[in-house]
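FORM 12-B: Structure-to-Sequence Request
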């Protein structure tokens, strides 16, 4: 016990948004100190067993789709949960040490955001990963709660606050009041499914195979939830499925909107279903307060416009949607009373 307190004196407590696509780390008194892709490059032996970690984060992401057979670029989190425990542990260890300037002699208190509705097995996997990576204490808070705090919503007041957090692996929709989640929905459809939809669309329409990185670039550069009117275009490079030869095609923003239609429709439907299950008094608050959207998916053009049209409620994008979750978790680091109210077992 004394050793834990002694080590705690030399550590900086951390809040981690352990995302499917990106991991962000907030250090107490320093703010956001790290934002990197949740990707790990590992070397495999002939039997497919992991031998050693070669790169983590940005360096590893550059290797996606470009590695020889014995090197594999892995995304250890899929659809918001840990798919590869060992690799997640190594990734967390790397990020924790990097946040502490690579000092091994630190044992921070860590808050990690997790999807709402996470199973007990998944909770244990997250906690054990952080503990084996060097954490002194581990607290879990739900992503929609962290996102709402980071977006500046008055979550401790007796008012209905609705947050829609569109991440990489999951979309979390929640109505929050008095520091608790009253109604929520979680669907494993978000940024990754958008990328996958673009890959399948290009394959189906143009007979061209593209990779995840290319699909993500298309989504970011010209993607939109609704037709934009200006119909921008982008040159897309991939492999012709008929000839096998590399080929370049032109893709328009309206085609990307068409590709994303089914995925966006699921997200809209989840928001509507959550509204239908919201108690009347809180529904009245949401009419006044509106809906806030956060997460990387909130950056897709016209997502707020589409949600406003479908729900007939005011919708706004959080000031910094990409960092809303980690900033909310970071605020909980600074306010222990708030942390006690919102932490989950």
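FORM 12-B RESPONSE
SEQUENCE OUT:
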């Amino acid at each position: 016990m004394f050793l834990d307190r002694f080590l705690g004196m030399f550590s900086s407590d951390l809040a981690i948004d352990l995302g499917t696509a990106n991991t962000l780390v907030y250090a107490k008194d320093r703010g956001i100190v790290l934002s990197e892709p949740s990707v790990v490059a590992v070397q495999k032996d002939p039997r497919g067993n992991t031998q050693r970690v070669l790169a983590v984060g940005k360096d590893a992401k550059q290797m996606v789709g470009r590695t020889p057979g014995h090197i594999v670029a892995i995304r250890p989190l899929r659809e918001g949960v840990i798919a590869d425990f060992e690799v997640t542990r190594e990734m967390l260890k790397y990020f924790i040490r990097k946040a502490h300037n690579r000092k091994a002699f630190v044992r921070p208190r860590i808050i990690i955001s997790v999807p709402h509705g996470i199973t007990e097995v998944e909770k244990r996997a997250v906690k054990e990963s952080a503990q084996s990576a060097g954490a002194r204490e581990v607290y879990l808070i739900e992503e929609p709660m962290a996102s709402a705090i980071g977006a500046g919503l008055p979550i401790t007041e007796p008012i209905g606050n609705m947050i829609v957090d569109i991440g990489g692996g999951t979309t979390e929709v929640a109505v929050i009041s008095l520091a608790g989640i009253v109604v929520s929905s979680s669907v494993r459809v978000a940024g990754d499914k958008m990328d996958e939809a673009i890959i399948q669309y290009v394959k189906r329409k143009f007979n061209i195979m593209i990779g995840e990185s290319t699909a993500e670039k298309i989504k970011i550069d010209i993607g939109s939830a609704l037709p934009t009117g200006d119909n921008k275009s982008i040159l897309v490079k991939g492999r012709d499925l008929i000839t096998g030869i590399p080929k370049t095609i032109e893709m328009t923003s309206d085609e990307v909107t068409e590709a994303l239609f089914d995925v966006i429709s699921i997200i809209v439907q989840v928001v509507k279903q959550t509204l239908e299950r919201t108690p009347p008094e809180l529904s009245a608050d949401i009419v006044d307060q509106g809906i806030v959207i956060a997460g990387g998916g909130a950056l897709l053009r016209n997502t707020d416009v589409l949600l406003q049209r479908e729900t007939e409620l005011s919708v706004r994008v959080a000031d910094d949607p990409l960092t809303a979750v980690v900033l909310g978790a970071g605020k909980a680091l600074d306010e222990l009373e708030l942390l006690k109210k919102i932490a989950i077992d």
